[in-house]
Amino acid sequence: MPRRSSGRVTLQDIAERVGVSKVTVSRCLREPQRVSETVRLRIEEAIEVLNYIPNRQAGALSSGRSLSVALLVPSISNSVFSEVQRGVDEGLREAGYQVLMGHTGYSILEEERLIDTFLAYGVDGFVLSSTRHTDYAHRLLNRARLPVVETMELTDNPLDINVGLDQRAAGRAIGEALIAAGYRRIGFCGARLDYRVQQRLAGWEDALKAAGLSTQRCQTTPRPSSYRLGGELLSAMLERWPDMDAVFCCNDDLAAGALFECQRRRLDVPGQLALAGFNGLDITDATWPTLTTVITPRRAIGEQAARLLVERLQGAPCDPSCHDMGFEIALRQST
Amino acid sequence: MPRRSSGRVTLQDIAERVGVSKVTVSRCLREPQRVSETVRLRIEEAIEVLNYIPNRQAGALSSGRSLSVALLVPSISNSVFSEVQRGVDEGLREAGYQVLMGHTGYSILEEERLIDTFLAYGVDGFVLSSTRHTDYAHRLLNRARLPVVETMELTDNPLDINVGLDQRAAGRAIGEALIAAGYRRIGFCGARLDYRVQQRLAGWEDALKAAGLSTQRCQTTPRPSSYRLGGELLSAMLERWPDMDAVFCCNDDLAAGALFECQRRRLDVPGQLALAGFNGLDITDATWPTLTTVITPRRAIGEQAARLLVERLQGAPCDPSCHDMGFEIALRQST
DNA sequence: TGCCGCAATGTTAGCGGTAACGTTTTCGGA
DNA sequence: TCCGAAAACGTTACCGCTAACATTGCGGCA
What we know:
Two copies of one chain form a homodimer. In chain A, about 45% of the residues lie in helices and about 15% in strands. The first copy, chain A, has twelve helices and twelve strands. In chain A, strands 2-1-3-4-5-11 form a six-stranded parallel β-sheet, with helices on both faces. In chain A, strand 3 (about 125-130), helix 7 and strand 4 form a beta-alpha-beta unit. In chain A, helix 6 packs parallel to helix 7 and helix 10 (about 225-240) crosses helix 11 (about 250-265). The longest helix of chain A has 16 residues, at about 80-95. Chain A is elongated, with a radius of gyration of 26 Å. Chains A and B meet through helix 4, helix 5, strand 2, helix 6 and helix 7 of A and helix 4, helix 5, strand 2, helix 6 and helix 7 of B. Chain A binds a DNA duplex (30 and 30 nucleotides) through helix 2 and helix 4.
């Protein structure tokens, strides 16, 4: 009993219509210059007429390359990663790769699960948005011998390629900027507390300690970040440390939420309290007052990740490397 | 010359180690109860030890089902769609499907390209976030005979399943709410002007006309929506219609941007100008004053889409249907 | 004329799974 | 003890495409 053919148009159908073998059709699609002009035109016509859509699964199975790459981000709703995604997507699409996206919900266990899933899908490479993974994820990636880019933060010990920025230095820089602006009782407010946030916190502490200032005004929570949470955290901080004159929020969402809370309390920003955020999202440049923040080169990180990944995919040898994409302090009205 | 095997562990490797045929191993993975206890345990052990990861491409090629579904959204950075995505993802994952996401950048041509791409990947179904497609996309979808869910807005003529809300009715409702609150010189400000925004605009006009009010205070642009744009549009409107007493912004980003612009101009909201947005994003409940908006059931739309899609994937017949998920007006401080 | 080399195309043998059907084993009941 | 059906497992033939090698045809040159 012959297996039911899916009914889809296949290479064979094209080949029969044109009167060549299916290898020639396949070749025509992959290396057009290796097929004669006349045959090529007739094949192209047949593809058009029959509405042929190549079956990537079959192609991937046969060639061992799927021309797809997995991009794992912590959260889709967080606009921080949408810029990275755009950069990655653009760079990889140019090179003929399709990006398959997954979101880990900030969980390395979920990341592990997704790595497994995408390996099953036969992706040719990974772009991860962290340098922290489970042991099993490490083993999976090592065994698969695929190019991997770890993005966002830097690490001393990259799996393969690492593109990001020094989160701790950025935290320190914004701390120093606040100190330079004359603030002395500077608070830190952080949510989610993933590795990157911890680094920013450490940088903030570095700056304050170096200036001989107290680092006690630190309010953190494992809850996910949101505008409202920014307001709640700020309220709690104002209660505990009424003398606080500036707050560095670990991200822009919290900073904006804190700003709204100040408005609600008729607290003048920056007159009575200065605010600073992190990432440089659109909103920081739209609020009143505009928000001081650390602008992170998310788009550039994505593009660079794509560029390096493509090099590896096209044969460059595996040579672990780190790429510091820097950051920029944007001093705005809120400080 | 034998073809270079990818080096990956395959069913065959498991089978050899256990001393059974690979069909038995395959069966053990798909229908465990059809394999004897002892063999099953030994197979499971071998899978564990050898770190076997099934090759989905091969499975899909052979069975004709890939257990994956494409979800196409206009924009990843727009949080409106991340809620839909979450709903879809959750519902489909439960049923064993993997969601592959693509973003169209609000272009139906790009949507067409993505449909083509994902058909090549052999997805088993589509979730689209519009009811507007190119002719070619229509043909592709019809020919593929796959279940398709069109989401967000409603249509009289669904391709297959349609889950969304009546955008025009929602626009009318917010218009009526503003009128009921006593506003009479109500403006509309819109960006991007995709189909949904046009519907909201039409609804707003319906409400104003029904109340005998002027619909001239309408400022639109094809530019993509953003906070800053909200401010710019509001400025332009205040210049043209200084007597305006309320503005319905086609989405929350514009409304928030407009609010920030009011703060910049020291214009009291709602005292001097009332503002309303659309979608019910987090920010509307965080700003000061909080923003009146239309809360759209995005999560529910995603979940319902997933539910209906799974039914179809599991054999329910194709029977075009529309599902109105409704909306809710949230009157807040800004009106 | 005969031989060489290259361009254009074809043949073969898989890639790693699964559907369909075939065979063997097991076991209860007549 | 023997029979027959179900449970357990195996064989075969693909799914649609491509790598590697084989073949054909033709022009150019000695």
